[in-house]
Amino acid sequence: MSEAIVIAVDGPAGAGKGELTRRLAEVLDFDLLDSGAIYRVLGYAVRKAGLALFDEDSVVQEAKLLNLSFECMDDGVHVLLNGEDVSKDIRTEEAGNNASKVAAYPSVRQALLQRQREFLKEPGLVADGRDMGTVVFPKAQVKIFLDASAEVRANRRVLQLQSKGKSCDFDSVLQEIKERDVRDRNRPVAPLKPADDALIIDSSDMNIEEVFKMATDYITQKTGLKF
Ligand code: DC
């Protein structure tokens, strides 16, 4: 039986899961599953193939054939589709929204389930997403639900975009975040919600150091892993 440890981190867009999970995976030397990237690549592949996001049959066919790989490079993990680096293309707000649309189809989620589970190997996995603790790894030893108010998340996203030299408008970012929340929380299969046994961290008034400390204290308590 595998002794691999799963640390599942779920939560809405912009709550800071990416930074927390990257740090946890690095410090623990665990693999990292960025499940959102899989849905982002799928949305991108569907659009690139000239297919419609609302056509569930086509989207599920793309999901089954998706030739996706993650590659570690000096500046972080890159995402490849058919061997082509699409890391930048999938990080736009539009790609996030398209991902949320394709992710709403139960058949698509089913088609991608096993692929996500295959990321688990010893010594362990840090899994970032919306349904890591509820559906993909329901037996995860550690489940964290990282939340923050929509306004705080929109503000963080604006600062992030500005730091990359991109201009953006707070109100439209906030509206997009709220739309994505509604879709992700209300879909019939694997909706965004905390697992019953998850630690909920509301990071609205916390910085990353405080979030990291709260998460690592909890991981130590649940698994004995030391930081
Ligand atoms: O984490 P992210 O912003 O990269 O995710 C993009 C979208 O993908 C998100 O709005 C909903 C979907 N998603 C999902 O449905 N389930 C996951 N486990 C991860 C992401």
Please indicate the percent range of residues in DSSP E strands (runs of 2 or more): 15-25%
- How big is the Rg? 17 Å
Q: Give the biggest sheet.
A: 5 strands, parallel
Instruction: Write down the overall mean pLDDT.
Output: 95
Q: State the helical fraction.
A: 40-55%
Strand order of the largest sheet: 2-6-1-7-8
Poorly predicted ranges (pLDDT <50, ≥5 residues)? none
How many individual β-strands? 8
Shape: globular
Count helical runs. 9
Which key features would you list for this structure?
9 helices; 227 residues; 18% strand; 3-stranded antiparallel beta sheet; 5-stranded parallel beta sheet
Record the SSE blueprint.
Elements: E1 5-10, H1 17-28, E2 31-34, H2 35-48, H3 56-65, E3 68-73, E4 76-81, E5 84-85, H4 93-102, H5 106-117, E6 124-129, H6 132-136, E7 142-147, H7 150-163, H8 170-186, E8 199-202, H9 208-223
Parallel strand pairs: 1-6, 1-7, 2-6, 7-8
Antiparallel strand pairs: 3-4, 4-5
2'-deoxycytidine-5'-monophosphate is lined by residues 13, 35-36, 39-40, 96, 99-100, 103, 129-131, 180, 184.
